[in-house]
Amino acid sequence: MPLIHISQVPQNDVIDFFQAHWGTTEMVISSGIYDCSQLQGFAYLNASQTIIGLITFIIRGNECELISLDSTEEGKGIGTLLVQAVEEHAWQHDCTVVSLITTNDNLHALKFYQKRGYILVEILQNAVERARALKPEIPLIGYQGIPIRDEIKLQKTSTSI
Fold it and tell me: What is d(CA 113, CA 21) in angstroms, rounded to the nearest whole number?
């Protein structure tokens, strides 16, 4: 089965995947600073056992927060399978909310999550500026030339599925 728990993947493969696709394993967002290689998650592997999709998350109380999602092969349903795996895990662990934070420039993520039942619940103005104080390599300009300034929180509740 190509979808497995991240703990079943060699740690070096997970670190290499994050460094190749994000430049680092570190994620700085308003909810905290995370080493994604140390978080719970799921991986999607191809036939040669190479990671082609990876999602990480944390659970705090009744909320599961998606921290990272990346798929190297767009449009094949890998991201959807990974999100669904986390949602199932969250509901099984008595979470009532799955949430995530993305940046204002990430129109692809905003579209992706809304199509899967997530709603926008909060705009954190200038949150990325605060994150840059901790991680200066966060770019000023993002996708399609949009300045990266704000974070947007989306969520899906167990009652909305």
Answer: 20
Q: Which residue has the tokens 């997530």?
A: 118
Give the Cα-Cα-Cα angle 34, 100, 138 (nearest 5 degrees). Answer: 55
* Domains of the chain (ranges, CATH numbers): 3-160 (3.40.630.30)
What are the residues whose beta carbons fall under 8 Å from the beta carbon of 133, sequence distance 6 or more? none
Q: Which pair of tokens denotes residue 8?
A: 């079943």
CA distances from 122 to 21, 54, 102 (A): 27, 25, 11
Q: Are 157 and 96 in contact (CB under 8 A)?
A: yes
10 Å CB burial of residue 57 (0-12, 13-18, 19+) is buried
Question: pLDDT tens across 52-94, in order?
Answer: 999 999 999 999 999 999 999 888 999 999 999 999 999 999 9
Q: Give Dmax over CA atoms of the chain in angstroms.
A: 43
Q: Residue 158's closest CA among 24, 33, 62, 51?
A: 62
- pTM check: above 0.85: yes
| Percent of the chain as helix, strand, coil, to the nearest 5 | 35, 35, 30
